[in-house]
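Hi F.,

I've been meaning to write this up properly since the lab meeting, where we talked about keeping a consistent format for the predictions we share between groups. The idea is simple: the sequence comes first, exactly as it goes in, then the structure tokens exactly as they come out, then a line or two of notes. No screenshots and no reformatting. I'm using this chain as the first example so we have something concrete to point to.
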Amino acid sequence: MDYSAKLDLAIGRLHQEGRYRTFIDIERRNGHFPHAIWTRPDGAEQDITVWCGNDYLGMGQNPVVLKAMHEAVEAAGAGSGGTRNISGTTVYHKRLEAELADLHGKEAALLFTSAYIANDATLSTLPKLFPGLIIYSDALNHASMIEGVRRNGGAKRIFRHNDVAHLRELLAADDPAAPKLIAFESVYSMDGDFGPIEAICDLADEFGALTYIDEVHAVGMYGPRGAGIAERDRLMHRLDIINGTLAKAFGVMGGYITASAKMCDAIRSYAPGFIFTTSLPPAVAAGAAASVAWLKRHPELRNRQQEQAAILKTRFKALGLPIIDHGSHIVPVIVGDPVHTKQLSDLLLDRYGIYVQPINFPTVPRGTERLRFTPSPVHGPKEIDALVRAMDELWSQCALNRAELAG
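Output, unedited:
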């Protein structure tokens, strides 16, 4: 077997389909976000503006967060020194879990190294706790949820995206006595649309199902204290398990679930993804706790971000760009071809110093390839003007290319 040739074939396929992912080297400069330095392939440095980051509110450079992290490093050192069960639980982890439980109005919270691991570990563990569990999963759920459902070895049902009627059909067709769980998201990050939380909770009550919601793209961003869409819509009390991240709006790293104390205790005790993983460094936990606490008291940052997103959408619509607008903070512009999406991304970076990563299959369906912009409160009028001008100048080239392909 020529293993090297097989690798060449696999990587070559991605190049042919225009789906090969290129990492660019960027250096964030404290206090200057969303501006950064790009090290070009030839070694030269270029100033760029980051338009595709998930640090939605710029909290990764908030002085309160940085101060908490510096103090924790000085007090506790770099790493945690072990798993949560073996010397890796510190006062910083307990404080963060308390902040998160309070944020979501739950009895307890459980920290993971990422929201991906939190989803995967929790969803794959639940059938151990509820034998015969049937999981009903939205068709557009995140890869981490799909993986967790796939690995759990139990029964699963996939309902059409946000299709409550289809979900009802699936629930009604199964044994009324079987344990059930509905897994879905509050904000779907590729289109920026919202899950029908209240309608799903109503079905869960009717059919005796647990509810599991991923609020990864909503925590910090919505609700009076930043707990997400469920808080905004006053539905948190109807959700059994809430998943969130500390790496997006909170600007640090890590993931978590919040639920009843008994549920968190059971997941903590049975999930290999929790049991056998070294815990977050104390400084990371301290920074995340400071960020969560700060955003509980500062809704003006969320409001400013929503204003910036609305302005960008209005400007793009005025250019006639095919954006998707479901009212969230995410601004996807559909290109519809992987090669041209990559070309647009490369030209924006090389000519204009604007960094937005192309989003291609399998992250989104073929034919819906896109550029996904994430405006933040620190993307000001100057940055928005520069982006709109660049897109206006480049879009005609993209349209000509698409016309040629269509012909």
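Notes:
Confidence is low (pLDDT under 50) at residues 400-407.
The chain has 14 helices and 16 strands.

If this format works for you, I'll send the rest the same way.

G.
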